[in-house]
Amino acid sequence: MRKLWHIFRLMVQGERKALLRGLALSILVLIMGVSLLGLSGWFIVAASAAGLIGTGAVFDVFRPSAMVRFLAIGRTATRYGERILTHDATLRALAKLRVTLLAALSTRSHDRLIRLRGAQALNRIVADVDALDGVPLRLFLPLIAGGMTQLLALVVLSWLVDWRVAVVIFATFTCGGLAVVLWGIRQARQPSRRAESAAQAFRSRFIDLVTSRGDLTVYGQLPDQVAACQVAETRRQAAATTTDLIERQAGAGLMVISALAAGAALWIGGGLAEAGEITPARAAIGFFAALALMETVAPLRRSVAEMGRMIGAARRVTELTDVPEQPERRVAPSGPVSLRFDAVTFGRGTAAPVLKDFTLSVEPGEWVALKGPSGVGKSTVLLLAAGALVPAEGRVCLDDLDVADFSDGATTLVGQRAALVQDSLADNLRLAAPETSDAELWAALDAVALRAVVEAKGGLEAQLGPRGAGLSGGEARRLVLARAVLRKPSVLLLDEPTEGLDTATADQVLAGLRRMLPDSAVLMAAHRAEEQGAADRIVTLGA
Amino acid sequence: MLKTLLSGQQRAIKTASYLTALSALLWLPQAAFVAGVFSRLLTGEGGVGVATGAVAFLAFAAVRLVLNYLAEGLLFRAGQAIVTQTRQEILTREARTHGVSPLGGPGALAALAGEKLDALLPYITRYAPAQTRVMTVPFAILALAFWQSWAVGVVFLIAAPLIPVFMALVGYAAQEASERQMKEIGSLGDLLVDRLAALADIRLLGAAPRLIGQFEQAADDLRARTMAVLRIAFLSSTVLELFAALGVAMVAVWVGFSLLGELSWGAYGGGITPWGGIFLLLLAPDYFQPLRDLSTAWHDKAAGLAVAGELATWKAHEAEALMGTGEKVAPLSGSADIHLQGLTVQRGSRSIAYPEAHIPAGARVALSGPSGSGKTTLLRLIAGLERPASGNVQVAGQVLGEDIADAWRARLGWMPQAPMFMGRSLRHNIAFGAPVSADLIDEAALKLVLDALPKGDLTVLGETGGGLSGGEARRVMLARALAAKPDVVLADEPTADLDRETADRVTEALLALAERGATLIVATHDARLIAKMDQVIEVAPERSVTGPQGQEADHA
């Protein structure tokens, strides 16, 4: 519950005004509904009483009947406003929450981020956030609005009808309603949570099935994966059935409460009228108001079934959004800088340190190649220079400042995996340099000898498929190099930049890079003779 | 489409609908008792006593409650059955086909099988019952109204038909809005799956804020679409509520005036009795309630139709059926000889024809040719993952087809060009549950890789092998192929994007396998790798086939 309150407050933050207005309107809707039914009941009974005793001519019919019409229309309009306001505010809060989640994910450490699984993150950002729309709409807003209306009804009914009738109605709804809801939440919490996690498991497994079905087929694992999906679905169905049973029981409980309240109002009010303590018309107010007050508890029924799902989602979302405050970081340097490694040691897991006491400096305009056998730590050096990894000992600096103190992108790393997305070629290029003109894009493409390829594909607006599908490995490599050029980086880090290119193209690309970026400090993990030949200096790792 | 979906559960839904209608109808005697209580309080005669009335009220409430409870249970189970069955259908069909779905990527497919199918539930559980109630309750109340007062009857009669007319108008707009919303849900899923895979690298470029900005836009679009659907729903229900409210208010005013004796028309004989007045007032809201329920359900139907539409698109797409079942069976017996005979495949409008070739068991063969010439497709044809347009692949002396595909694949090792990792431990990704032997780890040179991972071989990696370098991911694919103890290894660009040394290691491991008698078929550009093969099959680009297939085939 505390988690839910936390999420509720998080959602309220940006939408305070709209949600408060929505709450005010929800209370107004409930009050108008109760007034409408109470007034109508009173009106009919009082009118027939007046007609019976022949005082119909002096009975004021116009004010009550005008009031009935006003309440009827007013309630309808108010309800419309309330729904629009609360739903819009909630959906806005949810959209914001999704963005916050993605932003929080993107601050994860590099090592965790590269192992991030799309399907899982999708579950967080889509399904979990979707589950939270009930937090304001079906839990807190109805709870607060219902409670306020009940209190108000207690006061007004004591005055208009009789305190005994008012207290019985109030007590039945609040105590009974709360008891039912709390019981339902307790019962449904586990199964509802299980249903949600099973649904998420189904989604992850199904996505795996679709993405890897070729592999699964060859290795004879297809039926196993289908079975794994089915297990998740069976679990979900079982848990959902239990949840539904409890929800129905809670719903029945709430109906019992409502019927008891109305029945008691009829019984006690009728008895009082029989005894002549109040008029039948006032007894009618009590009964009709009790009928209308049903609306204060009815919406809580769904929150019973959703509670476990909401709590689970709230927990996961809170965990994710609960990232330590990012320290203020320096803006990326714009002029020439030098890159320095000062006695850096770095290791992962139980393996021996990849890097020990590593010292190196790269001056502006200088190209340094790192060579050495695979696994010796060339990529690690580049990731350290990019600030994606933090050294266990020693410092990695741009001039004299720690690289980790700068914001992301202070250095530009072109890794082995070409990070391309489903979008146009131009948008992929502009991802890191949004303000670039088409002419600059073409210049960068020229530098990496990609103009002809792009023209053949139909120009800058040609669409790439998911993960940049549609380009060969070499083309994708050159496209991300062009993207790096557009950033005019002070420090450029290249991980085997010309892998997959023939010698002529590789030379052309390296020369193009050098021409475009005369003042950059360039550090590259280099295997090929062409790459090593392009460097001013070669550093051998593991030697 | 919606109807077909529901056909299996028609009876349960019908029964439940009758139960809810019966429950709604029981409000009539309940109201009669309440009116009776007030009638006796007012006139001192007729009607019923307070205690009797209150007990009867509660008793009917109890019966209605039980009926509703049962109906809801039936509807829920029917809905679950339909959703689960459809989900199964999507699951089994997606497992039996290959190729791209018209709906989009795995994100969109998962959205269809997941939350979109769940969006059918409100339609299943609400629409038919609301329809049944509309066919019964208003007519019963109308009859009672005319019995008590023709004026009230006329009010009801005029107000009611406006509602369905209005509903139909709104329905079209609602369905269109729902369809747009459903599409947006699918594309948001695909956008996220795509972007998240590249997030680590994108952040290194300092482009994370821009990416987040793009996502913010997409999330806001989805919100706007959802809100558009809700706006229509709210507006239409507001209008209906207005009709209902005005109807009820008119009834109340007429009843009030009549009881006062101000109006002498509208009822029969001596005007309306207090009982009749109170009774009519209690019934008035429930005359409109079923119509309002139906209008809500109308929106559920709009959402249901949007989902059904997507399902229909998905069903109508004739995806290529998988050869065999993809299960583990005993390996095919016989020598692992492969004959390619007059193979062609259709790629959109163009057709690719492959040369005739014989690949004897234990041969080392390179498939070479420029990108896009169909090397990967040929590997898929040999693995039985795709069907040729004409010609056939013969393996161990039999034509590769339904009956032997699984047994043939049990003899294969498979290294795709783009490594994909499932959301399970690395160990499971290598051996699918079987233990990973130390020899295997040695052979694929994975020891250091495993040591550097936070949980060793129990680590869960990113989809494309995030957490490993390109070479390491390739080596895992190699280990997986080795773990299958294959007679034939099909490797797609096993050395692409690898540094020379890693490439050499992968090559060595593959050659070592060939030493032990396995056939090696690699699709590759790598001249060094090609040089180590015994045979090269040239896959030429853009063979436009004019004559009988296979005639222009060239042998390596």
From TrEMBL, chain A:
Limits of the ABC transporter domain: 339-543
Gene3D superfamilies: ABC transporter type 1, transmembrane domain, P-loop containing nucleotide triphosphate hydrolases
Keyword DNA damage set for record: no
CDD domains named in the record: ABCC_MRP_Like
Alphabetized GO MF terms: ABC-type transporter activity; ATP binding; ATP hydrolysis activity; ATPase-coupled lipid transmembrane transporter activity
GO annotation terms (biological process): cell redox homeostasis; glutathione transmembrane transport
Principal subcellular localisation of the protein: membrane
Top-rank taxon, per record: Bacteria
Transmembrane segments: 18-36, 42-62, 139-160, 166-185, 250-269, 281-300
GO CC annotation, single: plasma membrane
Record flagged with keyword Membrane: yes
ABC transmembrane type-1 domain segment(s): 22-309
Localisation: Cell membrane
Pfam families linked: ABC_membrane, ABC_tran
Bilayer topology: Multi-pass membrane protein
Keywords: ATP-binding, Membrane, Nucleotide-binding, Transmembrane, Transmembrane helix
Annotated NCBIfam families: CydC (TIGR02868)
The name this protein goes by in its record: ATP-binding cassette, subfamily C, CydC
Native organism: Celeribacter halophilus
UniProtKB/TrEMBL annotation, chain B:
Entry-linked SUPFAM superfamilies: ABC transporter transmembrane region, P-loop containing nucleoside triphosphate hydrolases
Transmembrane segments: 21-42, 48-67, 130-147, 153-174, 232-257, 263-284
Keyword Phosphoprotein included in the entry's annotation: no
Compartment(s): Cell membrane
Name of the protein: ATP-binding cassette, subfamily C, CydD
Gene3D superfamilies found in the cross-reference section: ABC transporter type 1, transmembrane domain, P-loop containing nucleotide triphosphate hydrolases
Domain of life: Bacteria
Any GO CC annotation of this UniProt entry: plasma membrane
Gene Ontology MF term list: ABC-type transporter activity; ATP binding; ATP hydrolysis activity
NCBIfam families per the UniProt record, alphabetical: CydD (TIGR02857)
Organism placement in taxonomy: Bacteria, Pseudomonadati, Pseudomonadota, Alphaproteobacteria, Rhodobacterales
